[in-house]
Sequence to fold (253 residues):
Amino acid sequence: MEAIQTPISKPSIRWPILPEDFILPDDPVENTDQPPLAAALRQPLTAFPELMENALIVSNFALCAEIDERIICKAPDWMYVKPVNPTGSNQPRRSYTPHTEGTVPQIVMEFLSATYGDEYSVEHTERVGKWYFYEQVIQVPYYVIFRPTTGRLEVYALESGRYSQQIPNEFGRYWMAGLDLYLAVWEGTHEGRTGYWLRWWNSLGHILPWSEERAEEERQRAEQAEALLEQERQKAQAIAARLRAMGIDPEQL
Fold:
C-alpha cells in the first residue's frame, strides 16, 4: 500500500539540539508485539562489532527536526543509525537529531497494530504524518512497515526524493544497503512468542542467529566433536584388541 502521492511544498527545515526542557510525547506502546520484535532485531547485531560501533539502535525513541519553526519528533518502532556522535557526557541520550548529532538513520521501521496510525500519512500542515516526516524531512533511505499479526512486510526505498516500494528477491528477502544485510519475515517461536518475526540474513544467505541459537549451535558442535573423539577411541581400542589377539603388545609399538 503506497501513500497517495500529491505535490508537496518544501518546508523550512533545521536541525537544532532538542532543548533540555522540551517535553517529549509520552505515548503508550499500542502494539504489544513491538518490544519483543524490536529486541529480536537488535540482538543478533551485537555479535558484529562493525555494526555496533558508533551506532544508535533504538525503539520508540524520539527522532527530531525543526519544521517551519516547530520542533517535531517521531518515535519509530525500530531505528538504526551509524555513525552517531558521542553525547560527551554521562547523561543518557533522550532524542536524536540528524545532521547535528550524526548521520541520517539508515532504516526506520513501524510495526502496525490492528488500527492504523499515521504510518502512511503525508499530512504536513497541521499534524505531520510519519510517511512525510521520514521521506521528505529526514529522508531516511529505507522505511519498513510490518504487520506482526499477518506477516505482511513492506519495504520502501528513497529514490529521487520519494519512497518506492521494493520487490524482494527469490527468497522473499530485501537488501538493506545501510547494514549490508537482507531483511525478511521468519515464522516461529522466540522468547515465548510464536508468530511472525523480522530477521536478518547476510550476503551469503545465512541467517543471523539469536543468542540462544548460537548457544545451541555451539552445543551441537561440542557434541559432534565428542562423538568423533569417541569413534576414534573405539577404533583405537579395536585395533589394540586385534594386535593382542595376534600376540602383539600394542604398548610396545
